[in-house]
Target: Phosphate-induced protein 1
Amino acid sequence: MSRWCVTNPRSPAPPLLILAVLSALLLIHPSIAWRPWPHHRNNATELEFGGSKKYEGSSEFVKLRYHMGPVLTANITVHIIWYGTWPKAQKRIIREFINSISATSAQSPSVSGWWKTVQLYTDQTGSNISRTVRLGEEKNDRLLSHGKKLTRLSVQSVIKAAVTAKTKPLPISPKSGLYLLLTADDVYVQDFCQNVCGFHYFTYPSIVGYTLPYAWIGNSGKFCPGVCAYPFAVPDYIPGLKPMKSPNGNVGIDGMISVIAHEISELASNPLINAWYAGQDPVFPVEIADLCEGIYGTGGGGSYTGQMLNDRDGATYNMHGIRRRFLVQWVWNHVVNYCTGPNALD
Model:
């Protein structure tokens, strides 16, 4: 599913406590994306380039298991619903990220290199998650068919409207399609900014008519960039900490990219909430991206993001797409039992 590690800004919590708190929070919804909350640091340099150590997750406590459900082994098609008003430039950044997932020609470290970790996950037949992720059909809901405030259930109603529209409905692809509902920066979704930046689940046939894996991700640019676009914006409770420069010049969208990546990786490995996750109860699973919340490079863990890259223009990123740079969190590698990414130094 999708959450982001929530920690106390004043006192570090040990790994077991973090997992316990996370599990309790997940009772709210089986798949919620949380953003990392950094502990107080004296400056951004320490946060970005602190002493490197082998701490990419905690293999001692993680018991990620396969629960015999399907993963997305067929070529994956990502269908987007643009809810609200979306400038062309913002759409372009998101499209280019999705198109970069399968773009093997991109400069290393690359988005396609990041996806190779996701591909390691298999179903009960031994078939791997597909290496092919492509951008599918798109649907614009500029008139906000369900208003500017959405509940978790009305999110599914928006998806229903997109797949049953009289003109150019989105195709129905239960086995290989992923449906991304992306809300504009003036749209509020239930629990948004209260540590929730996105979530994924599957649609109910009673509402939509089909069981479709989907995710919602919000643009936090106006509502809460310090929560959902960190480290390109910082929380108000950390005075003096300077935000990092976003690689594509848009804090809200660059913040969304990592949440979108988080959700797509978990939709691929746990689309019906019965495949790959840690924990005993699917009501509050901890999935492959949850285990690596806030980790973007070697040495990452706790309040430290790990070693990332800085371009000549001062922008911070950790991987290349087709034409752009992105900052994307790592995902759990069940073969080596820790978080991995294409920009790893070891």
